[in-house]
Design a protein that fits this description.
The protein is an alpha/beta fold. Helix content is about 30%, strand content about 20%. The strands form 4 sheets. An 8-stranded parallel beta barrel has the order 4-5-6-7-8-9-10-11, surrounded by 6 helices. The chain has a 3-stranded antiparallel β-sheet with strand order 12-13-14. The structure holds guanosine-5'-monophosphate (5GP).
Length: about 350
């Protein structure tokens, strides 16, 4: 047994220190970023915020709205080939730069991924997603997927430490997804005791990835636009959101009415609800590591996007960053023991 004594930080442990700035208005701030990906050398331009590949977030309906605003959607892996076909036949070509096809590491998932890519060669992004990115099997799967798809941008995760980010980039990933345990419907930390405070893992993983010319996605734990600003401030190239994009018209799942109030169901991808729905139950050797919640219906996602982008522009203005790219360089975090004033929250 060993103990690491230096403190690891989450979003709730810091604030961003304001700095003198020459910016007159938040309208001068650009949230677009340009990246050249490590293995494919493909270029990308957009606002680097992603909807998570959960079936109550990363839907086709969500992707259409997000792509229109230059954001990104990791489409969940449960759509059939026919559903993919119908969707892609009905959308604009620009969407291909703003969506990823998700896969797990089973043979069935892998075969389905290759079929989707074969039928739709314009798809550019693959998201290989497992709860625990530390297994040899996962690294081997990333290598195999890279060999089969030399021209696709590969996202792989999740991990939380620099050495594993390097290993995945060397195995063929262009972008590594970072986060174990911070998710809003995740119970991994409760069930297993395993995890890593998200802001520290962003800082450590971004450093490792940037050293090799790769990028990272901060995945999970953002509850308000300020957390997204902190994730970018810490060095995340992309930020992935589940809970903040859940509960909308475009989020999938049915609308429930109770006592005149509207709700939507939101659940973790390894919750009992998801496993019942997609694989017929929780296998008896495992525990569910996700929960199911009912959240107030939030209407169309465009209002949430505007609020989020407005918050980010304002964060950039407070530290004098004219472009999102400059936010990390201009961020000084201060450690705090308070966040927002909750006197009027219920
Ligand atoms: P949020 O933005 O809601 O805080 O976090 C979203 C992320 O939570 C997802 O992108 C995914 O990485 C993670 N996640 C989704 N479902 C589950 C689950 O059932 N269990 C765990 N451990 N993590 C989950």
């Amino acid at each position: 047994m060993r103990i690491e004594n230096d403190i690891k930080l989450g979003f709730k442990d810091v604030m961003i220190r304001p700095k003198r700035s020459t910016l007159k208005s938040r309208s001068e701030v650009s949230l677009k970023r340009n990246f050249t990906f490590l293995h494919t050398q493909k270029e990308w331009e957009g606002i680097p915020i992603m909807a998570a590949n959960m079936d109550t977030v990363g839907t086709f309906e969500m992707a259409e709205v997000l792509a229109e605003q230059k954001l990104f959607t990791a489409i969940h892996k449960h759509y059939s080939l026919l559903e993919w076909k119908t969707f892609l036949n009905s959308v604009k070509p620009t969407i291909f730069n703003h969506i990823a096809v998700s896969t797990g590491t089973s043979e069935e998932d892998s075969n389905k991924l290759q079929e989707i890519l074969k039928e739709h060669p314009k798809l550019q992004f693959i998201c290989i997603d497992v709860a625990n990115g530390y297994s040899e099997h996962f690294v081997a799967f990333v290598k195999k997927t890279r060999e089969k798809n030399k021209d696709k941008v590969i996202i792989a995760g999740n991990v939380v430490t620099g050495e594993m980010v390097e290993e995945l980039l060397l195995a063929g990933a262009d972008i590594v997804k970072v986060g174990i345990g911070p998710g809003s419907v995740c119970t991994t930390r409760v069930k297993t005791g395993v995890g890593y405070p998200q802001l520290s893992s962003i800082i450590e993983c971004a450093d490792a990835a940037h050293g090799l010319g790769g990028q990272i996605i901060s995945d999970g734990g953002c509850t308000v636009p300020g957390d997204v600003a902190k994730a970018f401030g810490g060095g995340a190239d992309f930020v992935m959101l589940g809970g903040m994009f859940a509960g909308h018209e475009e989020s999938g799942g049915e609308l429930i009415e109770e006592n005149g109030k509207a709700f939507k169901l939101f659940y973790g991808m390894s919750s009992e609800t998801a496993m019942q729905k997609h694989v017929g139950g929780v296998a008896n050797y495992r525990a569910s590591e996700g929960k199911t919640v009912k959240i107030s219906y939030k209407g169309n996602v465009i209002a949430t996007i505007k609020d989020l982008l407005g918050g980010l522009r304002s964060a950039c203005t407070y530290v004098g960053a004219k472009r999102l790219k400059e936010l990390t360089k201009r961020t000084t975090f201060i450690r705090v023991q308070e966040q927002h004033n909750q006197v009027f929250s219920d």
